[in-house]
Give the backbone structure.
Amino acid sequence: MFTKAIVRKPAETFINGITTSNLGKPDINLALRQHDNYCEALIKCGLDITILDADPNFPDSCFVEDTAVVTKNFGIITRPGDPRRLGEEVEIKKVLEPMLKLYAIEEPGTLDGGDIMQADNKFYIGLSERTNPEGAKQLSNILSEHNYDPISVKVKDILHFKTGINYIGENNLLVQKRFYDLPELANYNKTIIAPEEEYAANSLRINDYVLVPKGFPKTLASIQKLSYKTIELDLSEYQKMDGGLSCLSLRF
């Protein structure tokens, strides 16, 4: 069970963030309303949330998940793989220090939290353009010390590992078709996301609920068929900036 979450409001500079979506510029006022709704959903899921002020120096800094990997007992401060995001992790470290024992990914390692998927005692580490083998090795060593099982998986043609696959508990995975045949995932029950709904692969299990992006009815129905309670959230402005449900919070 998660009890805490850290989020950061989007800044006015959010429109200048990193994106490959070609969906147009986000509306910052709508993004702020959507963020408020996201925070309300976290509270409904039973979380005590810390809301950090917007940081206009880092247009992508509302995507706090990329700055740390957190568990109940310890956290790892990451080293973002895009140089434009280096520095976002500094304040996150200050916020987490009173709460958790902390480690850090060090140069030349790079690692984004969006590439890290926990499935019970296993941690899957996506080797992507943002997370390199050295970053994965450092994370694996830390996780192994704490009796977790780290597994590295190569990621191609996608931003982050969790852009295309997410664990929602009870041995169930939501997967884009590209991940379906990965041997590392052979023992899971896999729900394939329809090609036209690939964005919804980044649905997010928090305690008794699965958060699902609004506008993806096939995915919503598939999750509900598995007997999960769901909360739909409109994330249109974050989708424009390559962000999803998991990106917007650190949960532990």
